[in-house]
From TrEMBL:
InterPro entries: ATPase_P-typ_cation-transptr_C, ATPase_P-typ_TM_dom_sf, HAD-like_sf, HAD_sf, TMEM94
Native species: Rhizoclosmatium globosum
Origin: domain of life: Eukaryota
Cation-transporting P-type ATPase C-terminal domain: residues covered: 1093-1286
Cross-referenced CDD domains: MFS
Pfam family, one: Cation_ATPase_C
Transmembrane segments: 53-74, 94-112, 276-304, 324-344, 1070-1091, 1097-1119, 1147-1170, 1198-1218, 1239-1259, 1271-1289
GO CC entries: membrane
Primary subcellular site in the record, as a coarse category: membrane
Signal sequence annotation: none
Protein name listed in UniProt: Cation-transporting P-type ATPase C-terminal domain-containing protein
Region (Disordered): 1-20
Record carries keyword Nucleus: no
Length: 1322
């Protein structure tokens, strides 16, 4: 896969030898996949995934400093117990603190190791759960995993790029199977245009390798005529012998490569990981050593020059020179950070998981916030959903304990044991779920069909030819039209139009339209259509000889294009955008009837009494009565016809789009088809196309995109009202036009001239350049002599259309007929299109059925064309704009060439001007840039040149939203390039596209989208979609999230908003926590400077570090959404915390008041509680009668009371300061903290806990006369003043930070919105 180095696959050696011993198909697949996983577990790199945030939270420096402090404390305690030094209060404190620190070290070590192990094995566990699901499914679906039920007669999208399924021979039948459920040795059936699911060798249908034509396909290679490397005649002979279906034997198991790709892909570490690592590294490598050194120097001075006793005791040396300096840096050691990060991440993941499920289950619409001006930049709309607190708690505990959570809506097992969505914790550790969503800077759409657009093309416009000489759009009445009846469609049929709400008919206002007028009076006979009370001509063959208008009128034919638009509020889900479209009813009615007859939604009655398009044994519809069809609901959504079988080539997806809604919008009722009896179907194709035979192999991405073997389908119907037979054809434009000798202009038949053909192909080429797919429609009447008797016993027929159709030359009469017909019908040497022999009743009955069908395809009448295109899903354009506002670039990877890619990108709402598209294929694959400004801009060509361009020229490739001629390898490389340059990539793609696996596994976070809605429903044992569900489970193994097809893309933006809120809240909480740690360390250092007695003991430090700080910090996680959160620019994953020293000064200033105030409160309190014995010398440097380590009960009681007064003040100060941390930019007046219910509850709990802790400590402390009954007013004043003045100081400093933040945001927006490069046009 790509240029990565693949390790040898363990199961490769013995595949062929042990194939029979392995057992059933499912067991063999599972054995090969599990063997690959076992090989990875044995030889997988230890550094497959870094230790996540927990590993960065406890550097080695912090570990060894804690160990030293534990040793010092134990030494002091042991010395007190053995020597009986008289400092028992200090000895007890030392033992307690040492035990707690040792427990914390053990807990952190276990937690770090656990998190590292879980992060390393999480993806493997997901794969194991998927394989276990396959094994479970095999019990209900059988050893073939239900593939035998997934056959070609399903209305399923099997010929679109985002669904990788192959036709495989199982138990003698051709079935569809996802790529990742195929097995080495399987026989797959490929037609021209199909991609190989794995490395495969050309073989016979029995699996014997074809040594005569040793064609080998690599994985993902397109099957083309050039693949066989033989001449055209030999290839045509080979194609005829196989009916265009070539058998290939797989030489490898795709699932093995899929598992290998998933396990060996690596994701970068998250932004939060890098930020926490830099902070902890800065604290442990610089700040800690500075404070430790300063504390040591101060205490050396105290030990040498300021001791109350001239005797230098050992315990005093240990305490002053060893323990106290370590106490100063103890608050900076991130001992509580691993647990805090685990709680914060687990809570965030639980919120995302529950919100994801709630959004998919909710039926509410997304709505904009209130009081937003429509002209202002506004955040994306959101959906009001209620997340169950019990579900969040369950998900939170599951994340903490690493238990697979079971979402309420997605983890449903059916009777076959097939889970609709595989789930194993959503890969929260591997993908850094909440962090990656919050930090996403690029969303890469690597699929189109079913992900960002509808799975099948939708109707865009109708094309037909109109008489250019008419002054108005209404077709004129022509007397000659009564006898010119080539369009011999019964007018009663065309008159059955849908009624409008007022009871009139939608076509009743068309003059002479050949329909029943609103009052029920039959209309006149016009437009070549015979009214219900008129008799049809006895010989339609005369039309072919005398039924043409003049050539001048044909030359004056003007093309008419009517645009259609999908609209949910319309009766049939679409509408004509042209208000005067009814003026063209004469041309629209034949087209509408053709569209209805070519679908199974309003099926005509077949000759054997059933309904439905005649079954060809491969793609036909089931038999049901026409009445039952009409009783079904009216289809208003874009839907599909039955699968069109590929004859000699893969057909365009537009051929499977059902256009019955267009016929109904024109005005037809379903009952119009009841008078038509389907006789047979003819599939005809033309493999002898020079461009197909000379096209390249695997290099041309452009030619691959447009590759198609021209084919068409014709349906022969018997009109039971008139007894005539008629042919309706649809398919490839070249084939249809080649078979037509005239066209219908809405009122008459005109000759198909070169000028008319030019106009047809101009529209066709323009449509193709605009990334549309075009279907042409034609019609012809055929004599009814012996047609029914000849064809009713036939099923489908297959006709190969060569460069010319030769009329039989059996006798002189045939030659005479040829001369007569050639004289009357246009003859073109380049195409040899002449009238068919069946137009003469003298010769039609003498033809064999096969020859008769070949003749039926000649001399048709061109009706028009339908242009279809992939329409983006609802709101996708608005989502892209909203993402841009949020600083997230939407990038689309297109398989199409540049021109077609830009056409679709314009529909998406992407920019398509200069510097907007980069071609990822190599220069030898297709032409270069088409736009002159792109050439001048010197955009790189080929993914292999992107890195060099970024390094030497400019970074325009990182700012482009469109990449053309993309392949799975080039998409993967671009994702890596984005990540190398600091982008956080969110990848969205089809859950059924096996080629997406490696991109899913490499992106920071991946979101799989089901390409059609059928996957949402529960699967049963007999459901043919069960294999697709299993295949999707494998493909989505590396994905953190999976969306249903009908889930709005706005769900992703709401998840990003939630993730951003959680991450911003967590960042504020961590900032507050680090600030409190620095403040506490500062208090210790200042107390040493002033030569104060122990301002805080060890257990009091641990109380603040492990209870108060984490509790108040975790409270930030519940802060509500900021309305501007989706207008902020995200931070890239490089150059982290470049202004870290400015941030250090910023936090030092914000916490200066709590630090200074705490020392002042302690000094005043100690002075007060010492009573008459207190003076400045006693407090500063000489506390204690003998030494501050040997205190009397009174002295110890005074110190303890002063410490707890300090603790209460400090807790009140940091709680007050925390109110200003609720928002980085908004003031407490803009965001009142008392309106934040969660913060209020946490703050009250923090204060109550601190008061309880102090009360218990004082109650169990030494007894003395010291009480709190009469604190002097100056101490109360200092406490109150320090708390009150803290808020204005915080806000002033925060205002300075806001200025810097706004400046950085504006700079980021400027860089995000510019596309200027070194050679960009002015």
């Amino acid at each position: 896969m790509g240029d990565r180095e693949k390790e040898p696959l363990a199961p490769d050696k013995e595949r062929h030898d042990d194939k029979e011993a392995i057992g059933s198909r499912s067991a063999r697949i599972l054995q090969l996949a599990r063997a690959t996983m076992s090989a990875y577990e044995e030889s997988g790199p230890v550094s497959a995934r870094q230790l996540h945030v927990a590993a960065a939270s406890t550097p080695l420096v912090a570990f060894w400093l804690t160990v030293l402090l534990v040793v010092g404390l134990l030494s002091l305690g042991v010395l007190d117990s053995v020597v009986n030094s008289g400092v028992r209060w200090l000895g007890r404190d030392s033992f307690v603190v040492a035990a707690l620190l040792a427990a914390a070290l053990a807990f952190n070590a276990a937690l770090v190791r656990r998190e590292w192990r879980l992060a390393k094995t999480e993806l493997q566990n997901r794969l194991k759960s998927v394989l276990d699901g396959l094994e479970l499914a095999s019990r209900g679906l059988g050893d073939t995993l239900g593939l035998g039920k997934f056959q070609a007669d399903n209305h399923l999208p099997t010929n679109i790029a985002s669904v990788t399924v192959a036709r495989v021979l199982i138990d003698g039948s051709i079935c569809y199977a996802p790529f990742n459920l195929l097995l080495e040795g399987d026989i797959v059936q490929l037609a021209f245009g199909d991609k190989a699911p794995a490395k495969a060798h050309y073989c016979n249908s029995d699996g014997v390798l074809n040594t005569r034509i040793p064609a080998i396909l690599e994985k993902g290679q397109l099957l083309k005529p050039a693949t066989f490397n033989i001449d055209a005649s030999a290839l045509q002979s080979e194609s005829r012998s196989t009916r265009g279906q070539f058998y290939f034997k797989l030489l490898e198991t795709p699932l093995v490569d899929t598992v290998h790709s998933i396990l060996h892909s690596k994701r970068p570490d998250s932004v939060i990981y890098h930020q926490l690592y830099i902070i902890t590294a800065t604290l442990t490598t610089r700040v800690i050593w500075f404070i430790l050194g300063a504390s040591f120097i101060i205490n050396v001075f105290r030990y040498a020059f300021n001791s109350s006793s001239k005797e230098k005791r050992a315990e005093e040396a240990i305490s002053l020179l060893f323990n106290l300096p370590l106490y100063a840096v103890l608050p900076l050691l991130p001992l509580s950070l691993p647990f805090i990060t685990l709680v914060a991440r687990s809570f965030g993941n639980a919120q995302i998981i529950c919100l994801h499920e709630a959004l998919q289950a909710s039926k509410e619409d997304f709505k904009d916030e209130e009081n937003i001006d429509e002209f202002d930049a506004a955040p994306p709309p959101t959906k009001e959903v209620q997340t169950d607190y019990k579900a969040i708690w369950t998900a939170f505990v599951s994340q903490i304990m690493n238990r697979p959570s079971t979402p309420h809506h997605s983890q449903n097992h059916n009777a076959a044991g097939t889970p609709s969505h595989f789930n194993s914790g959503l890969l929260s550790r591997t993908t850094n779920l909440v962090e990656s969503l919050a930090s996403a800077t690029v969303i890469c759409a690597i699929d189109r069909e079913g992900t960002v657009s509808m799975p099948f093309p939708t109707i865009d416009s109708l094309f037909f030819l109109q008489d250019g000489g008419a002054e108005d759009c209404t077709p004129a009445l022509a007397p000659a039209a009564v006898n010119n009846t080539a369009m011999a469609i019964n007018a009663n049929i065309l008159g059955e139009m849908n009624e409008t709400p007022n009871g009139s008919l939608v076509a009743s206002n068309v003059v002479g339209a050949g329909v029943t007028v609103g009052n029920g009076v039959p209309g006149a006979v016009v437009n070549g259509l015979v009214a219900g009370n008129q008799s049809t001509p006895t010989s339609t063959a005369a039309v072919a000889v005398t039924g043409f208008g003049n050539i001048a009128a044909a030359a004056a034919a003007e093309p008419v294009v009517l645009d259609l638009k999908e609209e949910g509020s319309a009766t049939f889900g679409l509408r004509f955008e042209d208000k005067d479209w009814r003026d063209y009813m004469g041309s629209l009615k034949p087209l509408g009837l053709s569209l209805l007859l070519s679908t199974s939604c309003a099926s005509p009655v077949s000759a054997n009494g059933g309904a439905g398009i005649v079954s060809d044994g491969i793609g036909g519809d089931t038999v049901a009565s026409a009445k039952q069809r009409r009783l079904k609901r009216v289809r208003t959504e874009n839907h599909r016809k039955p699968n069109v079988f590929c004859i000699d080539g893969r057909v365009k997806p537009a051929r499977q789009t059902c256009l019955c809604r267009v016929g109904r919008e024109i005005g037809f009722q379903d009952s119009v088809v009841e008078s038509f009896s389907s006789i047979t179907a003819v599939h005809w194709y033309s493999p002898k196309i020079e461009s197909l035979l000379t096209s390249g192999g695997s290099n041309g991405r452009s030619s691959d995109y447009h590759f198609e073997v021209p084919s068409s389908n014709s349906q022969i119907f018997l009109d039971t009202l008139t007894g005539d037979c008629q042919v309706f054809s649809d398919g490839n434009v070249e084939l249809i036009v080649e078979s037509c000798v005239d066209y219908w202009n809405g009122s008459d038949l005109e000759l198909m001239t070169d000028a008319v053909e030019k106009k047809i192909f101009e529209f066709y080429q323009n449509a193709v350049y605009n990334d549309m797919q075009v279907i042409a429609y034609s019609y012809r009447p055929i004599p009814s002599s012996n047609t029914a008797q000849t064809l009713t016993t036939k099923t489908a027929a297959y006709v190969e259309r060569n460069a010319s159709f030769d009329l039989p030359k059996n006798n002189e009469e045939d030659e005479q007929l040829r001369s007569e017909m050639a004289g009357s019908v246009r003859w073109k040497n380049k195409s040899s299109r002449i009238a068919s022999i069946i137009d003469s009743p003298l010769y039609a009955d003498s033809l064999e059925p096969d020859a008769y069908l070949r003749e039926v395809l000649r001399c048709q009448t061109f009706l028009g064309m339908a242009a279809l295109c992939y329409e983006p899903k609802q709101d996708i354009s608005n989502v892209i704009e909203d993402l841009k506002l949020a600083g997230i670039r939407f990038v689309y990877f297109s398989e199409a060439p540049e021109r077609e890619s830009k056409a679709y990108a314009e529909r998406l709402g992407l920019e398509i001007d200069w510097n907007s598209c980069i071609i990822l294929s190599s220069s030898d694959g297709s032409p270069g840039y088409l736009e002159l400004h792109d050439m001048k801009a010197q955009l790189p060509r080929g993914v292999e040149n992107i890195r060099g361009h970024i390094e030497r020229v400019d970074d325009v490739p990182l700012r482009v939203s469109l990449f053309a001629e993309s392949s799975p390898y080039s998409v993967l490389e671009m994702i890596k390039i984005f990540q190398e340059n600091g982008e956080v990539v969110c990848c969205i793609g089809s859950s059924l596209n096996e080629t997406n696996v490696e991109s899913f596994a490499t992106a920071d976070i991946s979101v799989a989208i089901d390409p059609f809605v059928a996957l949402k429903t529960k699967r049963g044992e007999n459901d043919p979609l069960a294999p697709l569900v299993l295949g999707a489970g494998v493909t989505t193994s590396p994905c953190a999230l999976r969306f249903y097809f009908d889930t709005s893309v706005y769900s992703l933006t709401q998840l990003i908003r939630e993730a951003r809120t959680l991450v911003v809240n967590a960042q504020q909480g961590f900032s507050f926590h680090f600030g409190c740690q620095m403040s506490l360390s500062g208090i210790m250092l200042v107390s040493y400077i002033f030569l104060l007695p122990p301002i805080l003991t060890g257990y009091q430090l641990l109380w603040l570090m492990w209870v108060i700080f984490p509790l108040q910090s975790i409270g930030f996680l519940f802060t509500p959404h900021d309305s501007a959160i989706m207008t902020m620019m995200p931070v890239k994953n490089n150059d982290h915390l470049k202004d870290r020293w400015r941030s250090a000064r910023y936090y030092a200033t914000r916490f200066a008041m709590p630090t200074i105030g705490s020392v002042a409160v302690f000094i005043l309190s100690l002075w007060h509680f010492m009573g008459d014995q207190s003076d400045w010398k006693t407090v500063f440097g000489s506390f204690g009668t003998v030494s501050w380590m040997r205190l009397s009960d009174a002295e110890l009681s005074a110190l303890l009371y002063a410490q707890h007064i300090l603790l209460v003040y400090f807790v009140l100060a940091i709680v007050t300061a925390s109110s200003t941390f609720l928002s980085r930019t908004r003031t407490v007046w803009e965001l009142p903290p008392w309106k934040n219910r969660s913060w209020m509850i946490v703050s009250v709990i923090t204060i109550v806990l601190q008061l309880t802790f102090s009360a218990i400590s004082l109650y169990t402390g030494p007894t003395s006369a010291v009480t709190l009954n009469a604190l002097p007013w100056h101490i109360i004043f200092v406490i109150c003043f320090g708390i009150v003045i803290n808020i204005p100081i915080q806000e002033v400093v925060k205002r300075y930070d806001k200025q810097n933040w706004v400046k950085s945001q504006k700079l980021a927006q400027l860089q995000f919105n510019t596309k200027l490069g070194m050679h960009s046009p002015l």
